[in-house]
Write a sequence for this structure.
């Protein structure tokens, strides 16, 4: 089934949930309200004519610095695919800045677990009902969400964990680890010596 036909089927079945259908460079996207995302994705997964059994991707988007035509700052994007019918669709759930949360789809696709955690970790978007909504990339004590457009490139102080890592690297440097340029040179020198002895 063509993407445009899939999008129209979604709009026909969930008319109050579809904000818009957009097309860009051959890709169709369905913009949705967040309220019934699990119901919509369940239908796309289970309906015989859709059979979207594969969640190809799930990510967050911060639209704060581009003109989108809608007031919501965030999107959660779902890329679905049917391995049986060989068709797919992109769904974009619009979320406001002060209330950026949507229901988890982990019950539908276990693989959404870490994708939702990554989206939370990078954008601060909450996934209601997620079994373990904790950071997955950044340390637990990290402040802020690094992929927000207004996230500072450098904070007023270094993250304390980085300070600890640097101190540990200096401590291990005496053992010839790659913690400094001198250690790397020492390792290269030993490797070259070994090669010379083998020749």
């Amino acid at each position: 089934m063509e993407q445009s036909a899939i999008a129209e089927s979604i709009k026909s079945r969930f008319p109050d949930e579809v904000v818009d259908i957009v097309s860009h460079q051959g890709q169709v996207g369905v913009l949705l309200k967040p309220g019934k995302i699990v119901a919509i994705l369940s239908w796309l997964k289970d309906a015989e004519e859709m059979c979207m059994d594969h969640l190809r991707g799930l990510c967050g988007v911060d639209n704060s610095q581009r003109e989108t035509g809608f007031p919501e700052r965030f999107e959660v994007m779902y890329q679905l695919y049917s391995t049986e019918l060989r068709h797919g669709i992109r769904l974009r759930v619009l979320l406001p800045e002060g209330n950026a949360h949507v229901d988890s789809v982990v019950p539908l696709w276990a693989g959404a677990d870490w994708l939702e955690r990554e989206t939370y970790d990078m954008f601060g978007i909450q996934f209601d009902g997620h079994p373990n909504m904790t950071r997955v990339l950044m340390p637990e004590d990290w402040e802020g969400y690094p992929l927000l457009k207004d996230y500072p490139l450098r904070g007023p102080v270094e993250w304390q964990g980085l300070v600890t890592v640097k101190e540990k690297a200096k401590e291990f440097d005496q053992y010839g680890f790659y913690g400094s340029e001198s250690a790397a040179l020492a390792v290269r020198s030993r490797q070259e010596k070994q090669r010379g002895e083998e020749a």
